[in-house]
Amino acid sequence: MTLGATWSICAYSLAFLSLWLVLVFIRRAYLHPLSCFPGPRLAAWTPLYKAYYEAIKGGQWVHHVDKLHEAYGDVVRVGPNELHFNDYRVYHKIFSISGQFTKDPSFYSCFGVGMSTFGLMDPEQARLSRELMSTYFSRRAVLQLESVIQSKVDKLIQLLSSRENPSDMFYAFRCATMDIITTYCFQSPLGCLDSDNFKAPLLTDIQTAVSLLWTMKSFPWIIPVIPFLPTYLGGRLQEQCQAFLNVQSFVNTAISVVQQNAALQDTRKVLQGIAGVFDCLLERFPSLGAARLFHEGLSLIQAGSDPVANTCIVGFFHVLRNPSIHSRLKKELQAAFPGPNAKPGWTELERIPYLTAILKESLRMSHGFVSPLPRVVGPLGAELAGHQIPPKTIVSISAVSVHNHRDLFPEPHRFRPERWLESKDLSQHLVAFSKGPRMCLGLNMAWAELYAFFGTMFLKLDMVLVDASPDDYADFHDYFIPIHTGKNLHIQVTQSS
Ligand code: HEM
């Protein structure tokens, strides 16, 4: 081919590409069914607008969306085919049990767990998977697991009491919650709590890998290229990828052990007579493939550990910072469980309204997952906030918009457990576990753990905050879960009973 012909092909290709881009821009900006909604022009043109705040600016999307609502009102077009809402009534519609809204695959695929209960998009497949898994996370199942949960909380108490230096609770709580979920899933106690200064390698790997999430979502093509990048360009990404591979390798090994034991028909009962989730799954469904088990395992260890630990961190910080809340909680616990040998259980702790109010306020202020959870409108379209929304539109709203709504929660940034005692109706607006057919599957386990951590630790320990300031919890990066930008919470045990 001559040089002239090559130039012509390049020129035609460039002209064709430019024309195509112009047509895409015109369609998205003026002819698209969402073009009547306000929002930044760039967001209407390209999903890279959102990707910039997620991946390049690093977990800033949920904060940026706030600013967009201030500028454009309660409904904003935040992507070529996506609307974001700032109206708590819309939250209840999108996440209602009878809603025709499904999870958005372009968002959820980045978790790499498409065959798990969390990752399944098809509503019928997800329903069947939830039905199968709910056996292990029902209230009845979790009541049986209570002694296991309590043993990890007791171990944490003993470790905190024996330390002369302040403890980093970001890792300490995660060690306990990770030990609980891995023990229950795989029957192999991981022993995070035994790690030096609570810095268990699995937990540090998860923290390193977490910021890879938005890169994987918006630029998945970069992942196979990362190992070949020079260190000065891709060093941080290589570290994140390696950490992610380590987490995957942990789950793979745990699943292999479960499979080997199933093959040997060795039904282990290390959990004080309770069978592990994956042992049971394989016993009931021997044909479940390794990939399905791997996806379920990877999603469960993350869904089951970080949000419980985050709720504890935010709650402990606020309780320890407010002497009147702290002393009322302690007095109520001491009245309900007198004597040094008292063993508070989940059902007894639930009967202390002030403790429940503290847990709800901690959940509200830690939010659960902070990213706006995107849902796809069903084939019939939907009516949201007075607008007719076309089928297949992606609609999203963050729990943060509901939890910080001043009409529902006056002074939203103030930790005020009393608000839950003053109004019983308020509980419907606690959306940390989400709502509807895809709400948290591990809700019973989460409540049981929260009652055990707060109930036992505030009863048995005298604790003080070390070098903590409200600024530490004023801001967070949105990596699906909130990662607070301030210092990790450190506490010192001053006395234990
Ligand atoms: C305070 C603790 C927890 C909070 C705030 C929380 C919050 C949530 C939220 C908001 C969702 C919906 C996510 C979405 O739609 O994308 C969810 C889903 C889920 N959670 Fe939790 N969670 C907690 C603890 C747990 C625990 C302990 C487990 C159990 C191991 C668990 C397992 C799951 C699973 C499997 C799903 C997926 C359900 C589905 O998609 O149908 N979570 N959780």
TrEMBL record:
Keyword annotations of the record: Heme, Iron, Membrane, Metal-binding, Monooxygenase, Oxidoreductase, Transmembrane, Transmembrane helix
Cofactor(s) recorded in Swiss-Prot or TrEMBL: heme
GO molecular function terms attached to this record: heme binding; iron ion binding; monooxygenase activity; oxidoreductase activity, acting on paired donors, with incorporation or reduction of molecular oxygen
Residue positions binding heme: C440
SUPFAM superfamilies according to UniProt: Cytochrome P450 (SSF48264)
Family to which the UniProt record says this protein belongs: Belongs to the cytochrome P450 family.
Entry protein name: Cytochrome P450
Organism of derivation: Ephemerocybe angulata
Source species taxonomy: Eukaryota, Fungi, Dikarya, Basidiomycota, Agaricomycotina
